[in-house]
C-alpha cells in the first residue's frame, strides 16, 4: 500500500535549523500536491506549507513564512521542509501529506480531505 515516511526530526535549540524529508512509495507522486502539517500536544493538526504537484508553486502558513521552505523532487518521490530560525512554538509532530491534484484544496490543504498521511516526526525546539 501507499506509504509516506518522514525523517529528520529531532531536538534543536531556538534559532537553529532542521530539514525534514518525506519519501513516498507506491504512489503516483507527480499526481499529488504535497504538504506539511503539524500537531502540538492538545492542539488540532494545522497546515504548515504546501507545494503544487509540478513543484512550480508553494504556499505557507503565516506563522512560518520567511522561515520555512518546502520543496520536492519528483524523480525521487521526495518532499522536504527546510526549517530555519526555529522557535519553541514550532515544537510539534510534523506530518507529510499527499492530496490528489484533481480535487486538491491547494494552496491551503484541508486536513479532512488529505488522501495519505505519513506517521509523523517529532520536532522539539528548546528555548
Question: Could you explain the architecture of this structure?
Answer:
The structure is a single chain. With 127 residues, the chain is mainly beta. The chain is built from no helices and eleven strands. Strands 2, 4, 5, 6, 9, 10 and 11 form a seven-stranded mixed beta sheet that branches. Strands 1-3-8-7 form a four-stranded antiparallel beta sheet, with no helix packed on it. Strand 5 (46-51) and strand 6 (58-60) form a beta hairpin. It is globular, with a radius of gyration of 13 Å. The protein starts with a strand and ends with a strand.
Short note summarizing the structure:
The protein has strands spanning 3-7, 10-13, 18-25, 32-39, 46-51, 58-60, 68-73, 78-83, 92-100, 116-117, 121-126. It has 127 residues and is an all-beta fold. A hairpin with a 6-residue loop joins strand 5 (46-51) and strand 6.
Secondary-structure blueprint:
Layout: E1 3-7, E2 10-13, E3 18-25, E4 32-39, E5 46-51, E6 58-60, E7 68-73, E8 78-83, E9 92-100, E10 116-117, E11 121-126
Parallel strand pairs: 2-11
Antiparallel strand pairs: 1-3, 3-8, 4-5, 4-9, 5-6, 7-8, 9-10, 9-11
SSE arrangement, N to C: EEEEEEEEEEE
Q: Residue share in helices?
A: under 10%
Low-confidence stretches: none
Helix/strand-derived category reads: mainly beta
| Morphology | globular
Rg result: 13 Å
The count of β-strands is 11
**Tell me about the biggest sheet?**
7 strands, mixed
Mean pLDDT: 97
- End-to-end separation in angstroms reads 40 Å
Q: Determine the number of helices (DSSP H or I, runs of at least 4 residues).
A: 0
Strand content: over 45%
Amino acid at each position: 500500500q501507499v506509504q509516506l515516511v518522514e525523517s529528520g526530526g529531532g531536538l534543536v535549540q531556538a534559532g537553529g535549523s532542521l530539514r525534514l524529508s518525506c519519501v513516498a512509495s507506491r504512489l503516483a507522486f507527480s499526481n499529488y500536491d504535497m504538504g506539511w502539517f503539524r500537531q502540538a500536544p492538545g492542539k488540532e493538526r494545522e497546515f504548515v506549507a504546501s507545494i503544487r504537484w509540478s513543484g512550480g508553486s508553494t504556499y505557507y502558513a503565516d506563522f512560518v513564512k520567511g522561515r520555512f521552505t518546502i520543496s520536492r523532487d519528483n524523480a525521487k518521490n521526495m518532499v522536504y521542509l527546510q526549517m530555519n530560525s526555529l522557535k519553541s512554538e514550532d515544537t510539534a509532530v510534523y506530518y507529510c501529506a499527499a492530496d490528489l491534484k484533481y480535487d486538491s484544496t491547494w494552496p491551503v490543504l484541508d486536513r479532512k480531505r488529505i488522501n495519505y498521511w505519513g506517521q509523523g516526526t517529532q520536532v522539539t525546539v528548546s528555548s
